[in-house]
Each structure stands twice: as structure tokens, then as C-alpha cells.
């Protein structure tokens, strides 16, 4: 082992080498890092800072799971350590009171603002000692109190490990572009920014999620005859629906949010429940004692199969068709249709003036959902964008914004 004096000499030599390389113009490549800190999942994307506009960002896959989606879940151990992402999800059933998820629903909010969400989760939500601050989560038999910002720090830190695994610690920029929902107020935006600041990162841009989704498709770079175009971003996630109307300036590329309308109690999980009920009815035709919870487990698989195929089978040949699914979910689809029109009515917009519709959020993959959106623009000459993975759009758009 080198003695302290030798280590000091090595450090001086390395510093001198770095200075010489810098003098001759050598720089480690740096990247724009775009991060989507989501309610259910979080994603990071990167793009070389000096890349041409035509170069597309790349989504970063987790260094262990090889999935780009990291569950926004943190589980706390008595010894002070944490499990994050899939490792935390694995502990969720056994340690529900010590495993925090959906922290984004609580960030920047006081206790009086989260009564509904508090009751809907198994962990304990408590007011901050300072009544003006956001709520906290009490875990480990109330021996530890953590904030939604603390949870966000753990999730973003996990994302950054994957970024460094791809580009190296020298290429991993300390500057990030981050996203927030349109409806976030200033305390929520400030709290989200603190997540990154506590990790020593510099937030170069904070943009709204539907804007990032439009940028992912480069809609801000396209020119045309008109001075502006109108874009609708349809974002159906696991638990919420948001429909935003954007105005894109054709020549400058600037994007403004004209309106946002949503349904905060409508998401993919509601379609899962409808499908589980339909599966249960089918399976009990064959086996009257079919356990109901089996149907809930099967719902995700059946939903994926009905996204690709017109029909599938359950319980030894019981047929379920996409049309049956649509009929069972008709109330949910009606709410989607109404939300689409409400978002446009807010700015007195006729559907025929919408040039592009962007699908975001994993639940927007379902054909029965897409057909409902298409129906809202039945007579319009509108382009529908489904080419990119809707789960990754926001992070890709954030990384595509270069100052």
C-alpha cells in the first residue's frame, strides 16, 4: 500500500495530466440527462451534449434488471439501509408499512391536502413538525420519519447509478432536465427541484410533462405553412388521466400549454379491475369455486394479450374478446371521451384544428383506449403518434432539450 506522501504525489501527477489534456482541448464527453420522476415508475434518458438535433436520446436501462422502468418505490430496513425499485417492490407485501410508493402524490403538500391518498395507502402519513412543510412518512414502527423528497432522492440516485454504468462517472453530467405535471403548484415544483439539489445536481430546465412528450416526437422542430400548430397530449398512466392542449410556434419551436383537463381517479389500474371482474365471470362458468384473487393476477397478462390480439383465452379455453373488454369498460371509456372534449372546450377548440395527438402513459397502449381517442377526432385530419414507447416519452423529451 502506498504511504500518504506517495498518494499525494500521485494526486499531483493526475491533476497535472488533467491540466495538460485540457490545455490541448481534450474534454470528457458530457451528456444531457433527462429524468422523469414518475408516480409509479421513473426513467432516465441521455443524449450527448454536443450532438446534432437529429440525434435521438437513448433511454438508460437499469444496471441490474436491464429494464428502463424503475419502480418509484423505496423500502426501509431497521439497520438504516434501503431497497429501491424492483428490490423494494419485492418487500411490499411483507412490509407494507415500511415501503413507500406513489410519493409523487404527496410531494410538496401539507397534511390537509392528502387525506384521500393517505387513506388509500398502507403506510402512515403524518404532518411535518413545521405546519408549512410537506407531509412525512412514518416507518419502522414510527422510529424513522422521511419526506416525499427523501423518497425521491433514493429513486433518482438509483437512476443515476444506471447512467454512470453507461457513460462513466466523468460523462455523467451534474446538470439535468426534469419534468413535472402541469397541475403542480409552486410548492410541488420547488419540492421536486429539491430532490435533485440534495444530490448535488443542477437543474438546467424544469419543463412540464406534456411539453416533454411533444418534444420526444420533435414536434417543436417541425415547420409548416401555419405560424403555429395545436397538439393534444393524451396521458393515461396507472392511476390518472391528463389531457393537455399545447400550442407550438412553428418557427421558434416554443411550446405553451393552453389547457389541461384530467381525471385523477382514472387510470390503467381501473381497467385492470374491470378486466379482473370479466375474467372471474368467465372462469366461474367452468369452475364455480374459482378464487377471485386469481382473476386479479391474470388481468395484467390478459390486458397485454388483448393489446396485441383481438381475443385470448382463460381458464381452459374461456374466450375473452377485445369487444367484450370494451363493453365491460364502457363507463371508463366514456370518461376518457368526456375528458378529451372538456380539455378542448376549455380553450374553445374544435377538434379539426388539432394537428397532432401524442399518446403517453403505459395504459394508452390499449386499443380500446386509442379507439376512444380516435373517435374524438373522427372528422379531423389529425396525426396520431404511437411510434415511441409511451412509458418513456417524458424522459426522452427531457433529454432532447438542449440549451
Automatic annotation (TrEMBL):
GO molecular function: ATP binding; ATP-dependent protein folding chaperone
Highest rank taxon of the organism: Eukaryota
Keyword Signal: yes
Keyword flag Signal: yes
Source organism (scientific name): Perkinsus olseni
Protein name as it appears in the record: Uncharacterized protein
Keywords for this protein: ATP-binding, Nucleotide-binding, Signal
Lineage of the species this protein comes from: Eukaryota, Sar, Alveolata, Perkinsozoa, Perkinsea
Record's signal peptide: 1-22
Amino acid at each position: 500500500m502506498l504511504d500518504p506522501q506517495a498518494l499525494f504525489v500521485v494526486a499531483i501527477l493526475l491533476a497535472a495530466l488533467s491540466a495538460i489534456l485540457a490545455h490541448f482541448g481534450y474534454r470528457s464527453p458530457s451528456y444531457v440527462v433527462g429524468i422523469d420522476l414518475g408516480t409509479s415508475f421513473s426513467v432516465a434518458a441521455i443524449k450527448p451534449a454536443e450532438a446534432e438535433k437529429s440525434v435521438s436520446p437513448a433511454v438508460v436501462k437499469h444496471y441490474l434488471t436491464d429494464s428502463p422502468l424503475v419502480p418509484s418505490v423505496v423500502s426501509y430496513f431497521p439497520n438504516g439501509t434501503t431497497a429501491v425499485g424492483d428490490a423494494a417492490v419485492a418487500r411490499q407485501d411483507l412490509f407494507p408499512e415500511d415501503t413507500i410508493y406513489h410519493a409523487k402524490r404527496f410531494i410538496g403538500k401539507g397534511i390537509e391536502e392528502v387525506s384521500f391518498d393517505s387513506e388509500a395507502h398502507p403506510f402512515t402519513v403524518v404532518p411535518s413538525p413545521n405546519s408549512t412543510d410537506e407531509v412525512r412518512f412514518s416507518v419502522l414502527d414510527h422510529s424513522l420519519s422521511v419526506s416525499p423528497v427523501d423518497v425521491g432522492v433514493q429513486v433518482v440516485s438509483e437512476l443515476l447509478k444506471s447512467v454512470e454504468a453507461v457513460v462513466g462517472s466523468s460523462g455523467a453530467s451534474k446538470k439535468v432536465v426534469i419534468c413535472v405535471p402541469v397541475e403542480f403548484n409552486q410548492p410541488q415544483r420547488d419540492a421536486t427541484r429539491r430532490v435533485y439539489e440534495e444530490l448535488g445536481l443542477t437543474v438546467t430546465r424544469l419543463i412540464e410533462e406534456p411539453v416533454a412528450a411533444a418534444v420526444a416526437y420533435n414536434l417543436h422542430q417541425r415547420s409548416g405553412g401555419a405560424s403555429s400548430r395545436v397538439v393534444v397530449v393524451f396521458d393515461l398512466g396507472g392511476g390518472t388521466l391528463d389531457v393537455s392542449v399545447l400550442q407550438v410556434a412553428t418557427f421558434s419551436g416554443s411550446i405553451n400549454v393552453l389547457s389541461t383537463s384530467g381525471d385523477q381517479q382514472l387510470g390503467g389500474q381501473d381497467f385492470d379491475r374491470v378486466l379482473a371482474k370479466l375474467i372471474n365471470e368467465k372462469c366461474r362458468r367452468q369452475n364455480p369455486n374459482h378464487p377471485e384473487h386469481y382473476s386479479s393476477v391474470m388481468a395484467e397478462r390478459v390486458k397485454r394479450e388483448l393489446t396485441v390480439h383481438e381475443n385470448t383465452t382463460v381458464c381452459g379455453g374461456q374466450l375473452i374478446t377485445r369487444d367484450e373488454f370494451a363493453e365491460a369498460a364502457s363507463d371508463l371509456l366514456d370518461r376518457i371521451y368526456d375528458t378529451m372534449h372538456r380539455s378542448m372546450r376549455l380553450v374553445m377548440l374544435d377538434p379539426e384544428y388539432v394537428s397532432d395527438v401524442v399518446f403517453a402513459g403505459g395504459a394508452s397502449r390499449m386499443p380500446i383506449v386509442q379507439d376512444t381517442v380516435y373517435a374524438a377526432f373522427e372528422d379531423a385530419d389529425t396525426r396520431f403518434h404511437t411510434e415511441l414507447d409511451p412509458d418513456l416519452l417524458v424522459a426522452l423529451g427531457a433529454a432532447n432539450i438542449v440549451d
